[in-house]
Write a structure and sequence with these properties.
- By secondary structure, the protein is an alpha/beta fold.
- It folds into 2 domains: 31 residues; 159 residues, 3-Layer(aba) Sandwich (Rossmann fold).
- 48% of the residues lie in helices and 16% in strands.
- Strand 6 and strand 7 form a beta hairpin.
- Helix 8 runs parallel beside helix 9.
């Protein structure tokens, strides 16, 4: 009986290996760096910088790539004026807790339920590329890039935003050596960008 139970446990651990590894690594990251409460999210300094970008942006759409749980989306919605609308895009392919995509989306929807119900926030469940391909003008007033952090993904999102003439282009995780964000940003904006924590912004008032 005991043997069978152990076998079942080993089978389950093997079956969920990737999730188990992710859960352990998240836990270790929290233990080693408890100040980074919002894994994948923004620090207080970065939140203040994003709220300022929204407040100073012109009328129109504020587009966030990478919703995660909607915490920054809510912050953006709170900072947005009545002449600004908020769109957030996510394909729910990643979250720090290893939740399956359907639960991840359901959780994010609950976090943003007030904003979604009031229409202050529109959630688009799509890959960044698909969203960009089907996007119809007018150009957003501000885009905040925080989805796929690879060099190619950020480069392509910046190229898209520039081609539309988006006046303020910003994002997260600048200077983080784990990602390709810094290279993509420096190539696209050799004149330099404003940086607060790891939030970068081009076109904003300094
Ligand atoms: C770092 S988190 C976003 C954090 C969020 N902006 C915040 O401040 O709380 C990255 C999010 O981007 C999403 N994502 C990653 N690659 C994507 C892609 N190619 N298209 C759409 N969403 C993507 C992931 O599912 C994840 O929820």
């Amino acid at each position: 009986m005991m043997f069978l139970h152990k076998c079942r446990q080993i089978f389950r651990t093997c079956k969920w290996q990737r999730q188990v590894r992710q859960a352990v690594s998240t836990q270790l990251e929290l233990l080693e760096n408890p100040s980074v409460f919002a894994l994948g999210g923004l620090t207080d300094e970065e939140e203040a910088a994003v709220a300022k970008l929204v407040a100073e942006a012109g009328p129109g759409r504020v587009v966030e790539f990478g919703t995660l749980f909607g915490l920054t989306t809510r912050l953006i919605a709170e900072a947005a004026r009545p002449d600004q609308q908020v769109t957030t895009i996510d394909n729910f392919c990643w979250n720090p807790f290893g939740l399956p995509a359907s639960l991840h989306e359901a959780f994010a929807r609950k976090v943003m339920r007030t904003e979604l119900a009031s229409g202050r926030v529109e959630l688009v469940v799509a890959a960044s590329e698909a969203f960009r391909t089907s996007f119809a003008r007018p150009a957003p007033a501000l885009v905040f890039l925080d989805a796929d952090h690879s060099y190619a993904a950020v480069r392509d999102e910046i190229v898209w935003a520039k081609s539309l003439g988006v006046p303020v282009i910003a994002g997260h995780d600048y200077g983080n050596p784990r990602f390709g964000v810094t290279r993509a940003v420096e190539e696209a904006f050799p004149e330099g960008v404003a940086v607060h924590g790891t939030v970068w912004a081009w076109g904003a008032r300094r």
